Amino acid sequence: MLSTESDLTTSKEAMRKEIRHALSNKGVNRFPDLDLSVDFNTQSTDLMRDFVVQFRALGGKYLPCPKDQFADFMVRLLKSQNYPVLLNTKPQLSNMLRNNNINFVETIDVSMPADAAIIFCDTMIASNCSFVFSPKNSLFPSVKTLATNLIVVASANNFVPDLKTAFDVQMKKNEGNLYGMSEMITPTPLDVRDGKEICSPLNPRYILVLVM
User: Fold this and answer.
1) Which range is least confidently modeled, 13-27, 109-123, 197-211?
2) Tens-place pLDDT, residues 82-103
3) Which of 6, 7, 13, 191 sits at 20 to 30 Å (Cα–Cα) from 153?
4) Which of 8-17, 68-77, 176-185, 203-212 has the lowest mean pLDDT?
5) According to the model, what pLDDT value does residue 141 have?
6) What is the spatial distance between Cα 60 and Cα 21, in angstroms, rounded to a whole number?
7) Are 106 and 91 in contact (CB under 8 A)?
8) pLDDT tens digits for 22-65?
9) Which pairs count as long-range contacts for 4-13, CB under 8 Å and 24+ apart, including other chains?
10) Which residues contact 168 (CB under 8 A, 6 or more apart)?
């Protein structure tokens, strides 16, 4: 039904009345006062916290691990999950896994990804919550094609504030080699269907084992 001119006039008056009422009553400021003297370009001093907060918000699982308890920690984690097919990408872990009766494979068919893969990360970028892999820890064709669950092992000493710093770190480690960084991955939230998270090799679940 079309509004008449008198209806529009009444509506305008009601709106004006509400505006006058709002202006005449001092409300509570819902927003914090900003300190304009702060330098917003100042980098955070707690890179690990910045990364972990974002990582959890994206659905990642964060597991801090004492350095001297790494072996026991990994054994408990893997036995609790009991992955049918576990890909181990670090030969240095093979004896530890065998000695604890944890079944694993060291190669997979590209058409048949594993249920979980243990991978090692070189650097973590706090500003955009990304994992950086160098040639020695990169896997062809991509880390994201390996398994539906990625168990990322990293050191708490390897956080950097931004991408530029990550490049600088890799170049220093590789004696100026520009191609010291081979892959950077930013986790993405998992799809949810019928209340259940759906993970796949192209959009895996990330489990960060941070050695401290």
Assistant:
1) 13-27
2) 999 999 999 999 999 999 999 9
3) 191
4) 8-17
5) 73
6) 47
7) yes
8) 555 554 444 444 444 444 445 567 999 999 999 999 999 999 99
9) none
10) none
> Given CA atoms 188, 124, 184, 166 in this order, what sign does their dihedral have?
positive
CA distance 6 to 12: 10
CA angle (129 as vertex; 194, 134 as ends), nearest 5: 115
Strand spans (E) along the chain: 61-65, 86-88, 114-120, 123-125, 130-133, 147-155, 159-160, 183-185, 191-193, 196-198, 205-211
For residue 106, give Cα distances in angstroms to 58, 91, 93, 130: 29, 8, 11, 25
pLDDT of 12 over the 90 cut: no
Tokens 């084992």 correspond to what residue?
Answer: 209
Residue 39's CB: how many other CB atoms inside 10 A? 6
How many whole angstroms separate alpha carbon 121 and alpha carbon 138?
A: 9
Confidence (pLDDT) at 34: 43
Q: Which two tokens stand for residue 190?
A: 């998992």
